[in-house]
Amino acid sequence: MNFPKRFREIGIISIILIVSLSYGLYFILQDLTEDSIKTSLFEQQRLRQLDTNNAISQHVASDIDSILSKLKVVANSIYVQQGSLTENKTEQILQEMYNETRQLVGKADNLFIVDRNGTIALIASDQESQRTLVGTDISFRDYANQTKTTLEPVFSTGFLSLDGIYRIVITQPIINRETGQYQGFVGAGIPTVDFFKGFGNVYDIKSQYLAALDRNATHLVHSNTQLIGKDFFGEYTQNFTRHNDDLNNLMKKVVSGRSGDVVYSIGLGERLTTGFPISIHEDNETGIPPYVAFIVTPTSQIYSQIESILFTQRIETFSLLAITTAAAIILIVFLIKWSSNLDIEVKRRTRELESANEQLKVHDNMQKEFINIAAHELRTPTQSIMGYSELLATDPENSTRYINPIIRNANRLQRLSEDILDVTRIESQSLKLNREEFNLDDVISSIVGDYRTLLLDDEDKINLDIQYEPKSIIVNADKVRVSQVISNLLSNAIKFTTKGKGTIYVTAEKKNSEVMVSVKDTGQGIDPEILPRLFTKFVTKSSSSGTGLGLFISKSIVETHGGKIWAENSTDGRGVTFSFTLPVV
Hints:
Helix content is 50%, strand content 19%.
């Protein structure tokens, strides 16, 4: 009579023991798996930050090289070579080069000419206070003495300028080509904070931010403004960093010209810091880079992203486990099967986590592949520029033949750099819009006109026709970014329209509160396999060269405006139509 009761007691105890053991096993396996995944995800974030840091350092170096090239144009101009440092023609070319530097992400706020005695002879600037410095003696500045002594371009260390702004200066000596005599130099003043803020956050110390130092390890920009102008190894900064040996060793390594990273804590919480030298080819004799850049990320941000992924998986797995446990309590007959199912489910969820980890690895490989593609894309125009520059140097009388290819390839380099920086802005959610009211027809007509002109010089595309019927539509949007999207779509349409006669149709029409712009070509269409991934990074429509960023950037621009973008193959199998919408107001 007591056997059934005894059996029930044993059954209940068995259920409790099995459930307890199952939960314990689940949490142990879950913790082990999550620890492994956290370690792997953190390592991937470290490598991504290094890649981003490298890209920013290269872009800063590219901007500095570009500014230096403007200075060389002034220094080698016929008027400056003749010693006319203050004439109207000299002022005109100085102002022209200054205007071009203002188009860069990192900008100089003045260009100036200094005579052989160290006196400022001429200044081009938007600021009246800068222009009043004409006639000021700056011979006491280290960069002025160094330029006069070495007769080479100089990239100065940071210093507090006469107007109270912390700056660096780039100089190009003026050497008379006939006599070899030093006549002075052309310089560019660069406010460090305004310059580097174009490459990342330099204000908010509680989130990922960018810091930069000169060759003497003096801060040029930092989110803690009290550190600007302070020596990293000085007492003030060392007190701030709590004399952290790991951070000090990283600084010594990067300032010496090598990249590196470290995880450390200085009281503000744990940080991941990566550093890269900003190497400029004009300043490579000592091997010490003139400037270095660091990206500092609170590890709490990294772990919060990882925890967000794991939390969802944890809730799903735990909910399923609870349901399975309840079913086991009610259906004791299926106790053994429940235990088996639990083990299977835990393993399945573990595989899902591991699958997510593999997907992140695939994305990381895609980024590395993109770096290789970008390197190849950069190498081709760079080699062309170097080749034509050498021809120009040896055959200056035929300069017209070489200047246009140099400009064309330089523009190609600039577009690629802008695309890479746009991707960085998009992924860091810092893409900004400068909205204004404008006539969309003016933008489309201008772009169509430019491409029609380009087609006249392309033998493969000479029979290609672009049709567009002007239609006045006023929109409130970022004019430059909308132009970028339309130009990307029209460029793709031309690129993928085969040789021979063809037509590209561009239309714009207003529908209620939005406008729709479409670009239709008669090319080969889009591979159905690629179509679902067409607007993601690194995806191209064919084996043609390219980074696969144009459509990804276009999609981000359109969606930031509140619109949408899509592509459809023609029903007759000839060509594809790209369309996007924008709110009218």
